[in-house]
Amino acid sequence: MRQIAHIDLDAFFINCTLLKFPDLKGKPLIIGGLNNRGIVASASQEAKKYGVHKSMPTRVALQRCPDAVLLKGDFDLFTKYSDIVNEIMTERAPLHERAAIDEFYLDMTGMDRFHNTSKFTKELVNKVKSETGLSLLYGLSVNKTVAKICTSHAKPIGGYEVLDNQVQPFLDPHSIRKLPAVGTTTFKLLRRIRIKFIKHIRSLPPEAMNELLGKTGSGIWKKANGIDPAPVVPYSAEKSIGKDFTFDQDTQDMKVLKATLLRLIEFLGFKLRKLNQMCACVSVRIRYSNHDTETMQKKIPFCANDEMLMEIAFELFKKLYKRRMLIRLVGIKLSHLVHGSHQINLFTDNVKSIELYQAMDKLKNRYDNPAIVHRAFSL
C-alpha cells in the first residue's frame, strides 16, 4: 500500500512577511497589488474576519477593513523560504516533490518496515517549523489526491491521516470542489445535473463521466473512487523548456530581435501555464554570424508571467549583445521548473490583466495557436 504525505505551508505569504516584519503580528495584514486595481494574494486571519479573501480587489478589501496593512508581496523572500524548506526535505525525506512554492508531497511507501510513517511525517513537519518559524499542515494517505484533501482537515491539530480502508467513507461526503481536477467550469456543469458530492460521481458509471467531460471525466471518476496512481516526482533544477529561432538572414535590427524574443517568451510562457508550471531561471542565447555562441542566465522568483519573463529576457539580451555583429540565432530557456498555480503575479497584476491572460490562453488553447500575442508587447 502506498503512503503519501501532502505538506502545505499554511498562510505562506502572510507568515513569511511576519517573519520579516514581526511588529505586524496580530494586525490585519493584506498581501497584494498596491495600485487601485490590484487584487489580494493573501490575507491574515485578522483581515479575514472582515470578509477579506484571496482574489478580491484590494480596493474592496480596504473598504471592508480600513485599518489593514497592505503590502506588496516579496517574492524573493517567499522563494528563499521555499528553498529552505526544500533543502530540509531533500536532506531528510526519501522521495519528495515540490509541487508549488508552498506545497510538497512525500512518498514514504515501504518505509513502514523501518519507521513509523506517521511519526516520521510529524517529526519532519516539526523540524521545518523549528528551523524556519513557518506554520505547516499535513495530510497522510494512500495517494496524492486523498492526502491533499486530508490536509484541508488538518487544523487545528496540524495533521490528518486516512488509512486504506477509510478512504471511501472519507471522500464520499465531500463536495466535488475538493477534487483537484474539478475547476470552476467543471463544477458548474456537474452541479447543473445535480452532482454535488463525491459520492454522486462514484455512483455514475465511468462511461457517463467520459461522455460528459471526455478524458477529464475518466480522471475525475477515478479520483472520486480513491484511485490516483500519479507518482511523486522528485524536484530537479535541471528540468527546462526552451525554444530557438534561426533567422533566414543574419540581422542586427533591434526591432526584429526584440520581436523575436517576445514571440519566444509568449510561446514558452503559454506552455508553462498550460503545464501548470513556473520557472525560477531564465536563459538567453545568441549565436553570431561567425557561429560564436554566448549564453547568460538569471535566477528569478518563481513565475509564469510573460511580462516579467520578457523584462528579464531583454535585460539579459542587452548584457549579452556587445559585439554589434550580425546575429543568426536567438534562444530562450526557462528552467528550475516546479508545478504550481501561482501563475499570475498577484502582487503587480490587476483583475483586468489577469482576465486578459486567461482570455489569451483560452484562445490559444481553442485555436491551438500559441502565437496570439499580448497587445501590451506590440513593438
What descriptors fit this protein?
disordered C terminus, 379 residues, 14 helices, alpha+beta, five-stranded mixed beta sheet
Would you give an account of this structure?
By secondary structure, this protein is of the alpha+beta class. Helices cover 40% and strands 22% of the residues. The chain has helices spanning 12-20, 45-48, 58-64, 75-92, 117-132, 144-151, 167-171, 184-192, 198-202, 206-213, 215-224, 254-274, 306-320, 351-367, and strands at 4-9, 29-32, 40-43, 69-71, 96-100, 103-107, 136-141, 159-161, 240-251, 277-288, 293-303, 327-335, 338-339. The strands form three sheets. Strands 5-6-1-7-8 form a five-stranded mixed beta sheet. Strands 9, 10, 11, 12 and 13 form a five-stranded antiparallel beta sheet that branches. Helix 6 links the parallel strand 7 and strand 8. Helix 10 (206-213) crosses helix 11 (215-224) and helix 12 (254-274) packs across helix 13. The longest helix has 21 residues, at 254-274. The radius of gyration is 23 Å and the shape is globular.
